[in-house]
Amino acid sequence: MTALAEGMKRVVVVDDQELVRAGLEMILASDPSIEVVGSFSNGLEICSWIATNQCEVILMDIRMPQMDGLEATKRICSLGDPPKILILTTYDLDFYVYRALSAGASGFLLKDVSPEDLIGSVHQVCSDEYLVSVIETRDLIGEFAGNIEVIDGDGIEGSARAAVDLNPALLTRRELDIVVLVARGLNNQEIGAELFISENTVKTHLAHIFGKLGIRDRVQIAIFAYEHSLVLPKSL
I need a surface site. Which of 53, 134, 146, 229 has the fewest CB within 10 A? Predict the structure, then answer.
């Protein structure tokens, strides 16, 4: 594999509609710091590719033949050090998007996202300092968290399952404060200002939270917060 320029983001697009893939690739290619390294039409293809290749971000459709985006997300997120996955969705698939987030996806985007927001979201998800589509993500998690087992007898699957089962008492008071602020959608700088601590201190606390909960990004922290009623939808 050839070395990438510093800061270069390797991105893969997975959607069963060729025109959608072509449009996304064209938008992504307009950013010189993004390289589209793969384009696939279903989950089987990306799961096969990722077994021997690497990328930073996967844009993943939900409804696809042979293997849908939910199953592909579960399989990819079960790998060691998986790439970030951004789910591509429409308004009528919220429940499936929530399941994908619970399985380890790092965010979601509506398919009519603007070119600027698409590119910005790729950079945001790589930075680990933001919730992508903050308002939409908070609303989605607030709607389904805590009700998933009633709607789906299998319950939450993937990396968020461990977080749901953990007792918040395992976290310190300061860590719980940060969990709540992450669930509210604040970035590291905003959390630091809210708590009167440095960004580096915020990052240190987040590393401890990730380790204790066995999760890897802010979406799973937000799910944990809602599942344990640390944050309530009406409080946002």
Answer: 229
> 35 and 113 in one domain?
yes
Asked whether the beta carbons of 85 and 77 are under 8 A apart, the reply is: yes
Spatial contact of 51 and 39, defined as CB atoms under 8 Å apart? no
The reply to whether 41 falls in a domain is: yes
Give the residue from 71, 92, 127 where a domain finishes.
127
pLDDT tens per residue across span 29-83: 999 999 999 999 999 999 999 999 999 999 999 999 999 999 999 999 999 889 9
Q: CB-based burial of residue 123 (10 Å sphere; 0-12 exposed, 13-18 middle, 19+ buried)?
A: middle
Instruction: Specify whether 119 is located in the same domain as 183.
Output: no
| pTM score of the predicted model | 0.87
Dist CA 162 CA 27 (whole Å): 37
Helix (H, G, I), strand (E, B), or coil: what is residue 235? helix
Number of Cα atoms under 13 Å in the Cβ half of residue 106: 27
Domain count of the fold of the chain? 2
* 39: helix, strand or coil: strand
How far is Cα 136 from Cα 159, in angstroms, rounded to an integer? 21
Domain's final residue, options 127, 143, 164: 127
Residue indicated by tokens 């950079």? 123
Residue 186 sits at the vertex; the CA angle it makes with 138 and 206, to the nearest 5 degrees, is 105
